[in-house]
Amino acid sequence: MKLIKEIAFASALTLASLVAMPSAFAHEIKFGDLVISHPWSRQSPMGADVSAGFLKITNNGAADDKLVSGTAEIAPVVQIHDMKMDGDMMKMFEIEGGLVIPAGQTVELKPKAKHIMFMKVAKQPAVDTSFKGTLTFEKAGTVEIEYEVVDPQATMDH
Ligand SMILES: [Cu+2]
Questions:
Q1: From ligand 1's centre to the CA of 11, what distance in Å?
Q2: Are 55 and 146 in contact (CB under 8 A)?
Q3: How many angstroms does the Cα of residue 15 sit away from the middle of ligand 1?
Q4: Average pLDDT for residues 83-103, to the nearest whole number?
Q5: Alpha-carbon distance 116 to 109, whole Å?
Q6: How far is the CA of 28 from the centre of ligand 1 (A)?
Q7: Within 10 A of 30 (CB to CB), how many other CB atoms are there?
Q8: What band does 20 get if pLDDT is binned at 50, 70 and 90?
Q9: 141: which of 32, 69, 100, 149 is 20 to 30 A away, CA to CA?
């Protein structure tokens, strides 16, 4: 398993976001041809046994890569999900075969869209803490990341 972690502070941070969150979380992880930006999660209501993780993945390489799996400290089961309309209901489903990160493009995982699904969460993480996880890509291998946990009320329009 190849583990390369290089943390660089995002250059485009506004003063507002610097004030709003600890700088340790305002990070980018450069990993081979990939850049992973600001992994975050939000606390689900107490009693819920699921949560979700969000981040941006940029592929600066010449070839497509694919996010195939992940792990998280808070959950024994981690899946990669997308959403689709089923009648007039939005439903989520596991992306079969992994999430393609096309060469030269950025894929954003965000609320109401693609996300990392944490399942069988025994204990919801506290707001303003973080938890570790990994993401495994078909070509780039496995990278360690850390999700910032935010208040769900603060992310309605995130
Ligand atoms: Cu999901």
A1: 31
A2: no
A3: 32
A4: 95
A5: 8
A6: 24
A7: 16
A8: very low
A9: 149
The amino acid occupying position 71 is T
**What is the per-residue pLDDT for 46?**
78
CA distance 123 to 47: 8
Would you kindly state where each structural domain of the chain is located, as residue ranges? 6-155
Tell the CATH topology of 6-155. Answer: Immunoglobulin-like (2.60.40)
Look-up of token digits 């495994």: 136
**Is residue 152 very low, low, confident or very high in pLDDT (cuts 50, 70, 90)?**
confident
With contact defined as beta carbons under 8 Å apart, do 58 and 35 qualify? yes
* Residue 67, both tokens: 């996010």
Distance from the alpha carbon of residue 14 to the mean position of ligand 1, in angstroms: 30
Q: Which residues contact 90 (CB under 8 A, 6 or more apart)?
A: 83, 84, 112
Cα(124) to ligand 1 centroid in Å equals: 16
The mean predicted confidence, pLDDT, of the chain is 85
* 14 contact partners, CB below 8 Å, separation of at least 6: none
